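Problem 12. The chain below contains 304 residues. Write out its predicted structure in token notation.
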Amino acid sequence: MEYRILAEGLAFPEGPVMLDDGSILICEIAAGRISRVSPDGRCLPVATPGGGPNGAAIGPDGALYVCNNGGFNWGEMDGLLIPGAAADDYETGRIERIDLASGKVERLYSECDGQRLSGPNDIVFDAQGDFWFTDLGKHHAHHTDHGGLYHASTDGRRIRRAVYGPDMNGVGLSPDGKTVYTALTTIRHILAFDIIGPGEVAASPLAALPGRMVAHFPGRVLLDSMAVLADGQIAQATLVERPGIATVDPANGAIVYADFPDLLTTNIAFGGADMRNAAICLSTTGKLALARWPTPGLKLHFSA
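Solution.
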């Protein structure tokens, strides 16, 4: 896969959002900052919510909605920036709304049904203007909090957990909006859930084994964020043993790898007139790559 580096020196970039003017919004997790990368590679701050802004999406009102994981402690390994357990000043995970014109940050949700959010990670809007998001959970010195798959409204008044479970990272919607996908990082599964109502998915035979299996990744390949392609296939970010972006066919679970040179290649987003421009986060080295993808990505609701 041919690519070029658009920007470097980023503080563990994730959650790219491609805008119609050719610029790209980036969550710099280690800096607690949202930045805008222009087509010529210049990087300017947009907002500084603190914590760990992780995944982002444009909502129906034109604001940026952000999954904030609350922050990590960080370490270095051979010059690579690696996230660890919860930050020493970790308070809670939360969902935030950011006005892109002013940089104002508004906290929408920090709990659901009396339980705090642990580490919100990835987000996608449905056609109705509500959003699905995952909560990866949070590692602490002696325990790990678990999250799951959630659905919420943009007015801060309605949130529900659709699925309880650990390890839920990437999230995406099928082109027809009838299926929501999640990627389980260390369990290495992509799961599918049939949507039967607002924030509601079909029950699984066993709650401990939620969803339908789409694909399983072998070895020590770990999973991060995802995007859905226009043809319904899934572009899944892969980590560690085979870092890059894998294309997964939900019909048969077939996996095709595209390798990228960063141990934690965490995210991909699509844009451009033909939706084949792909922004890929090379997170441990602080770089944002651009590639021309073989097939177009699915245009996200409200992305313009």
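Discussion. The mean pLDDT is 96. Students who got a different answer should revisit the alignment rule from Section 12.3.
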